[in-house]
Amino acid sequence: MKPIIWTESLSVGIDLIDEQHKTWISHYNKAAETLTTHHHPEQIIKTLEFLVDYTGTHFATEEKHMKANNYPHMAEHFSRHQELRETLSNLVTDFEEEGTTDDLSDYINTFLNNWLIEHIKTIDTKFASWAKENGVSIVDA
Ligand SMILES: [Fe+2]
Ligand SMILES: [Fe+2]
């Protein structure tokens, strides 16, 4: 398993969002680690649930600020979030039904790993740049 290490290359330039991304990544790393090292199923489910919950919290913060400021690309951004919410909830169901499978480990270690980095570097960065260009301040979660 390859943990995601937050570095400046993942900074979107807005402190609140960067701090949330760091927390999000640490939940991701924990879930991937428990799954890869075949922890007890209850432990795995707990870390997956923390990841799902925190994903919801983080997306809610971004979406609140996009809505409040009428961000022109919010429909696209919301739909990406929605896709991931659905995928994560299917993943929890799959784990509950089938336990740790190679598909699930691959999914977490490859697809989800890439998704988080890609989302932060492209779509979140696009929103953050827009916010800065338009003098929108994003300070409260
Ligand atoms: Fe984000
Ligand atoms: Fe986002």
Helix count? 4
Largest β sheet strand count, sense and barrel closure: none
Per DSSP E runs of 2 or more residues, the count of β-strands stands at 0
Taking all Cα atoms into account, the compactness measure Rg is 16 Å
Shape field:
elongated
Strand content: under 5%
Give a list of the ligands.
Answer: fe (ii) ion
**Secondary structure: helix percent:** over 70%
Q: Which key phrases capture this entry?
A:
141 residues; mainly alpha; 4 helices; 0% strand; binds fe (ii) ion
Structure description:
By secondary structure, the chain is an all-alpha fold. The chain has a domain at 67-130. The chain contains four helices and no strands. It has helices at residues 15-36, 41-68, 74-98, 102-133. Helix 1 packs antiparallel against helix 4 and helix 2 runs antiparallel to helix 3. The mean pLDDT is 95. It binds fe (ii) ion (2 copies). One fe (ii) ion (FE2) binds next to helix 3 and helix 4.
What is the structure about, briefly put?
76% of the residues lie in helices and 0% in strands. The protein is mainly α and 141 residues long.
Secondary-structure map with pairings?
Elements: H1 15-36, H2 41-68, H3 74-98, H4 102-133
The chain binds fe (ii) ion (FE2) (2 copies).
The site of one fe (ii) ion (FE2) has 5 residues, from helix 2 and helix 4.
